[in-house]
Amino acid sequence: MPKLTQDRVLGLIAMALGLFIALYWAGADSETGLVEKVRGRLTVGDALAPTVAATLLASAGLWLCLSAGAARGFTRANAAFIGGILAVLFISLGLMRWGGPMIVEAITGADYRPQRDTAPWKYVGFVLGGTVMIAALIFVVEREFRWSRLIIAVGVTLFLAFFYDVPFDDLLLPPNGDV
Question: In angstroms, how far is CA 57 from the centroid of its own chain?
Fold first, then answer.
């Protein structure tokens, strides 16, 4: 039996997560499936992009498991690092989902839903959660806080928000479609 190394544990986690997303979550979270037939034409369904991403994640996990060399064994430090990454992801996604609407409602006094597709309000949750995610992940990896990294996180998040939002009139940035 192969030794359980850091790479193999990470690969197994990636494979499990990828398979969970591809086989359960992507289909359960969308109404249209992978492809949809609209007026006799096949169109891309809501579940296609997350399924492709999950398949790539699972494939990378498999590759990591099979190519794991003579890395050290899995330690508590490895588990703590993975736990820290997961905590950052859950916290930042929570900020993205609930922080934006709470801030907008606190500032404007109005319900968030009618404002979720009007600038600047539609960017609040995405930019808040995205900035925290990028900055915190950099902090976890580098183990030190630098203001320049926070500026990079804000810049990258704003770039992504505008890159996805500006060209498409009917696109709602995450999580605005769910609010």
Answer: 13
Q: In whole angstroms, give the CA distance from residue 21 to residue 55.
A: 9
Poorest-pLDDT segment among 10-19, 33-42, 89-98: 33-42
Alpha carbon distance 93, 135 (integer Å): 13
* DSSP H or E stretch at residue 78: helix 76-94
CA–CA dist 104, 130 (Å, integer): 17
- Report d(CA 21, CA 50) in Å as an integer: 7
Collect contacts of 137-142 with beta carbons under 8 A, ≥24 apart. Answer: 137/85, 137/88, 140/81, 140/84, 140/85, 140/88
Dihedral pair phi/psi, residue 34, rounded to 5°: -75, -45
CA 80 to CA 95: how far, in whole Å?
22
Longest dimension (CA), the chain: 61
**Using CA atoms, how far apart are residues 154 and 126, in angstroms rounded to an integer?**
11
CB atoms within 10 A of CB 96: 23
N-to-C CA span, the chain: 48
Q: Hey, what are 94's tokens?
A: 């929570």
Which amino acid makes up residue 60? A
pLDDT tens, residue by residue, 137-167: 999 989 899 999 999 999 999 999 888 787 7
